[in-house]
Amino acid sequence: MRYLLGLDIGTSGTKTALFDELGNTIETANYGYDLFQPKAGWAEQNPEDWWEACLNGIKDVVKNSKVNAKDIKGIGLSGQMHGLVLVDKDYNVIRNSIIWCDQRTEKQCQYMTEVLGKEKLIEITGNPALTGFTLSKLLWVRDNEPENYNNIYKILLPKDYIRFKLTGIFATEVSDASGMQMLDINTRNWSDELLQKLDIDKNILADVYESVVVSGHVTEEVARKTGLEAGTAVVGGAGDQAAGAVGSGIVSEGIISTVIGSSGVVFASTDTPRFDKEGRVHTLCHAVPNKWHVMGVTQGAGLSLKWFKENFCRKEIDEAKEKNINIYDYLSEKAAGSKPGSNGVIYMPYLMGERTPHIDPNVKGGFVGVSLINNHGDFVRSILEGVSFSLKNCLDIIENMKVEITDVRVSGGGAESEVWRQILADVFNHPLRTIKASEGPALGVAILAGVGVGIYNSVEDACEKIIKGQDLVNPNCDNTALYDKIYKVYNSLYPRLKDI
């Protein structure tokens, strides 16, 4: 049997997962790390923390699986998108990585729009200037930390820094690179026009490949530290959303993925680049050769529930411990005890600004419609409903872009909640097929690695063999009618409150 390794360098931790060629999970390991917020709206991480988590995870998986390292034929890399990693000529990290949810770069986005124009930016990169993307972060460093900027030898994305540590090679691939806002997504290569107009040296960018291409091989030093075989192939991999889509079988038009992780994403594969003129959803290169994808993003999905848990659930955390119940399962039970509509409470999930549909880094979240009758369960349920409304905003825009919707699949930590799955089906008014994708991005990049080393003929062929849909959640007609009314109120809140 041949095996494939997937690494997913996430925001809260790194998952390392080993699969056999049939897609069965053999062994996994998880290592967490910290997120730093030096100021409100800022978010940073130390790339060395990611590397330490990868080293430990690989070592654990290789050792505990008892699989012969020679039988691990390829490694795929996934990770949080848009993070800026700066490396100097001695290959040392210059400063902490400014990561995807950081919102400090509004001024730089205005500058990009002035220099290139919103239409030109969308035409080249698929998106307007966005605070979350890598380019605006790079310009912020240039404006505010000139010494650090002048010391840059290469800029890398989080997973591509791990690639460098594994192989000694500076490389990236089209799906993650198109989230940097420096790639021409039409030609699937760096945009000379954009780089020249913004006075950015192309030499600081890594070589860009298709996601299934072998970009390097494990070094002798890493092999000694991890138990891997030196020379094991490392493929391009993918940004976490494209990787998760491959891991859920979202590789052809008509199949829609909804992922409820820290952020929430509605993702659709397309055969040609599709653009929203207002730039409310992202158009990026897919990890599947010659395909693209559109993606709407809710910044604060699972993040909203995590924030609420940490700040308002001390009693519930203690009760869950006493009953030996996972705290999120316990909060789901609380939400189930509240009626659809949360007894009038509507939640706006704008804890870190918002991307879709508002593209507003400054908007704040809130609970609206609170009265004396409301209890703790109403607030929990309103979070699940508010995030679902925000995801519905994403779905509506994608549908208006003439993207066919034949099959909606749901995955991610939030989707493990039966209550949240039902709310989402009712709000979407679509049947949802659950995908067991706890290893989603890691499985996705393991599949890409399998294509790269010749185990599978194509990404589509691999997904056909490996990915199986599970339970079907049908919408409840009564709830759908109620949520339609509440959705209209939800959509009226942003224009009323955005200036507060």
Automatic annotation (TrEMBL):
Annotated gene: xylB
What residues does the Carbohydrate kinase FGGY N-terminal domain cover?
3-247
Function noted in UniProt: Catalyzes the phosphorylation of D-xylulose to D-xylulose 5-phosphate.
- Annotated PANTHER family: SUGAR KINASE (PTHR43095), XYLULOSE KINASE (PTHR43095:SF5)
The name this protein carries in UniProt is Xylulose kinase
Q: Which NCBIfam families match?
A: XylB
Q: What keywords would UniProt list here?
A: ATP-binding, Carbohydrate metabolism, Kinase, Nucleotide-binding, Transferase, Xylose metabolism
The protein's matches in HAMAP family, at most eight in alphabetical order, are given as: XylB (MF_02220)
Active-site residues are 240
Q: Which InterPro entries match?
A: ATPase_NBD (IPR043129), Carb_kinase_FGGY (IPR000577), Carb_kinase_FGGY_CS (IPR018483), FGGY_C (IPR018485), FGGY_Carb_Kinase (IPR050406), FGGY_N (IPR018484), Xylulokinase (IPR006000)
Q: Which Pfam families match?
A: FGGY_C, FGGY_N
Site (Important for activity) location in chain: 8
Keyword Transferase among UniProt keywords: yes
Q: Which residues form the Carbohydrate kinase FGGY C-terminal domain?
A: 258-451
Family membership: Belongs to the FGGY kinase family.
